[in-house]
Amino acid sequence: MHQIKICNYYKYKMSQEKGYTRLVSHGIKPSLQRIAIMNYLIENRIHPTVDMIFSDLYPDIPTLSRTTVYNTLKILVEQGAVQMLTIDDKNSRYDADITPHAHFRCSKCGCIKDLPIKEDIIFKEDSEKIKITEVQLYCKGYCAQCLKDIETKNT
Ligand SMILES: [Zn+2]
Ligand SMILES: [Zn+2]
Q: N or C end of the chain, less CB within 10 A?
């Protein structure tokens, strides 16, 4: 399901700029492997896990290790270039979209989709002496495909 390949060299070349720019603007030194991981996240909005990123990039970057992917993601999250989601209790998921939005996870197939949120859903800080740095909103249910499967099974 996550086998969206970026091994196409031309596409890779074209996207290099975007990942590079994101890294530099968040104060991250742009090594080739970091650029590749950042690009992967920008191009594959599937909220991938460490393993998905590793297995998709490894054929193109044989020097890549799972640890490098993990450590790179840690830096990207720390510097705010990427957000980490804990919607999947087994694996952390990563999202290049750092604008406020909610997430939906299908309880049957496990796919994760973006949901738009209204600006006013962001809670007010001033009533308490706190500072909100991050908002995570998770919804669970069944995706359209799984709903269809369930319905056809029941009829
Ligand atoms: Zn589903
Ligand atoms: Zn998202």
A: C
For ligand 1, the distance from its centroid to the CA atom of residue 21, given in whole angstroms, is: 34
Which contiguous run of DSSP H or E holds residue 140? strand 138-141
Cα of 90 vs centre of ligand 1, distance in Å, is 17
Q: What are phi and psi of 144, to 5 degrees?
A: -60, -45
**Tokens 């640890």 map to which residue?**
67
Distance CA 98, CA 96 (A): 6
Number of residues assigned to the chain = 155
CATH value at residue 60:
1.10.10.10
Nearest to 83 by CA among 73, 70, 98: 98
User: For each of the chain's 155 residues, which pLDDT tens digit applies?
Assistant: 444 444 455 455 555 568 999 999 999 999 999 999 999 999 999 999 999 999 999 999 999 999 999 999 999 999 999 999 999 889 999 999 998 899 999 999 999 999 998 876 666 666 667 887 778 899 999 999 999 999 998 87
Count of structural domains, the chain:
2
Q: Which domain covers residue 23, as residue numbers?
A: 1-95
